[in-house]
Amino acid sequence: MKINYEIILILQEYQFRYIFAKNSIVMMVLVIFINKKAESFSASFILYHILIFLINF
């Protein structure tokens, strides 16, 4: 629960930072996806790297 909560906080931080960017819709989708799949650590770990890819892209 702690790891998932930290990832949700990271998502919210980048969602505020890129709220006017085109990726904001993707961020919202990822937040919804994490809320549904928050129980598995592997999904959160993969989503974290997807976030890094989107921000660097």
Chain-wise SSE layout:
Elements: H1 2-17, H2 24-36, H3 41-56
Structure write-up:
This protein starts with a helix and ends with a helix. The chain has one domain (2-56). The protein is globular. It is mostly helical and 57 residues long. Helix 1 (2-17) runs antiparallel to helix 2 (24-36) and helix 1 (2-17) packs parallel to helix 3 (41-56). Helix content is 79%, strand content 0%.
Order of helices and strands: HHH
Shape: globular
Give the mean pLDDT: 67
Poorly predicted ranges (pLDDT <50, ≥5 residues)?
A: none
The number of helical runs is: 3
**Would you report the number of β strands?**
0
Number of domains: 1
Measured between the Cα atoms of the first and last residue, the distance is: 29 Å
Keywords: Membrane, Transmembrane, Transmembrane helix
Transmembrane segments: 16-34, 40-56
